[in-house]
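For the sake of clarity, the format in which proteins appear in this thesis is described at this point. The fold follows as a row of integers, each naming the local backbone shape at the matching residue. One such record is shown here in full, so that the layout can be seen directly:
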Amino acid sequence: MNTRTTRTLAAALSLTAALGISGCSASSDDAAKPSMRVSGAFMPQPVNDKMAGAFMVIKNESKTADKLTGVTSTLSDDLQIHETKDQKMQQVPSLDVPANGELKLERGGNHVMFMGLKSTPKVGDKVTVELRFEKADPVKVELDVKERTYNAQSSTAH
């Protein structure tokens, strides 16, 4: 073999190896990406246009833990993730969604807050939100607007 053929062959083998390695890493990342499923999503009818809460169960159906890092909606430009500890509510940058587990957003506990509503939804309306995660793809969710006193039963699947 001459020098030119050897260099061409070496370059081709290097390119093939690089493509093979990158292909393997992409497929293993996709396999490890968490998959989220949401159930029981609702919003009690807001009293006014100042604020509202959103509640749901986010189920992580993968072996990879993740975090809820943000929520968006056309109903408000200011959606916040809140945790409740020692009966005190505070805004946090994220909430953990454990591997093969769930994050419950419920009254008296962790939840999503809408601040400064653009309109006031009524019972029977639906409010669309998009949940954003550290690793998983975003998930669009429709919140059913319920009576102000509505409280989901944890054993009820929606």
